[in-house]
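Morning, I've got a small favour to ask if you have a moment. Here's the protein in full, and shout if anything looks odd to you:
***
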Amino acid sequence: MEFLLLIVHILVAATVVGLVLLQHGKGADMGAAFGSGSSGSLFGASGSANFMSRATAALATVFFLTSMGLTYFAGQKHETRLVPVAKPVPAQAVPAVPEGAGEKSGAIPK
């Protein structure tokens, strides 16, 4: 299920990027008014704004939902992989350091 959600997430992300790149900016109509650009497009002069804007908004919603779904699955995996914490060792169980072990005499304690 997580793999399918990841594939949908990647496809939606690529489609949103494509739709955003296909849309005209707000200043594009001003350039067309002075003759430096073409006002005709595949969807007409104003027909693309409604279709492209709505498609981008719908795909952005799907993108956010798949992001939340992937976050949920990642959290579920993390909870199942918890490692138990080791108990601290009591102070009495720590062995004492033999005399002369810290000196620089070169003698190794046996």
About this structure: The chain is about 55% helix and 0% strand. Helices lie at 2-22, 28-33, 47-80.
